[in-house]
Amino acid sequence: MALPAGSYVVDALSTEELDPRERADFWTEQIGTYQSRMGYRYPQAERFHGQTVRQRTDNYQLVKYRSGEIEYTRTMRQVRQDPDEDYRLLLPLNGEIVLRQEGEEARLTPGTGALVTFGAPFQCLQSDDINAFILTVPAREVDGRLGAKSPVAAGLDLTRGLGRIVGSMLTGLHEEREHLTDPQFDSVSDRIVELICMLTVGDDRPDVPGQLAEVEAMVRRYVRDHAADPNLTGTAVARALGWSLRQIQLALQRVGTTPRELIREERLRLVRDRLLCTECEHMTITDLAYSAGFSSASALSTAFRRRYGVSPREMRQSLR
After folding, report:
1. pLDDT for 216-235, tens place per residue?
2. What domains can you pick out in the chain, each with its CATH number?
3. Model pTM score
């Protein structure tokens, strides 16, 4: 079933009506349209069963599935033949999933999750009657927040705190699938990914060693380059750089400022530099205000006097 709401689509499949001898082949074919190239092994092919409900947009895909015992593998050859750098968040609701990737192993049972990349080979063994969520997450949403490629994140605790919220959000996203639009689905998925990144670094703060300093430097460069934009806000900066607003706030907090204060400081610096520039002598104070992102000449004058002790007009006169 597809919903006529932008790019948001909901569909489902089941092996229930098929001949038992056809179910494994059907599952291999259909899951191959959901995910990148993998290998499939069915220990009990004659007893295999499976069903899925999939929600997807151009950005995210959430699949809730139930199936019989199966082993998925992704080899280096398949990684090269069918490149896919995106991540999958796995959360079993019943049964057990064992993940092996890059020398690490994650044994998942209900209440634990893992973040695994399709950009490297893996082995995924799923028990009989597995029931689970799998959320496909664009690599940029993870790598940007964590500052580097993330290995498999094993044993994420989804029974309490932020983890429990993640589990509840995934369940809600699935249960409300017929009542969502594509922006709504993407917005909730964005928030889930942000929380997962917090869990991955083992804290409720989106920080890893040295990351806040890197974020601060990136934010300062971006604000300096875009200070004249009247629509520049902390949220706009976060969206442009691929970070969350909270990450930016934490990065600037450590050096005693906020997004709002940084933007104002860079705009005032821009006005001051233009006041000192002979090529800008033709610009009125109102021109300077609007060209630097201020809403009015009076707003500029108030902020400028508070920062430099004189008004823009007084500074210009003192230079003549």
Report:
1. 888 999 999 999 999 999 88
2. 9-200 (2.60.120.10), 211-318 (1.10.10.60)
3. 0.63
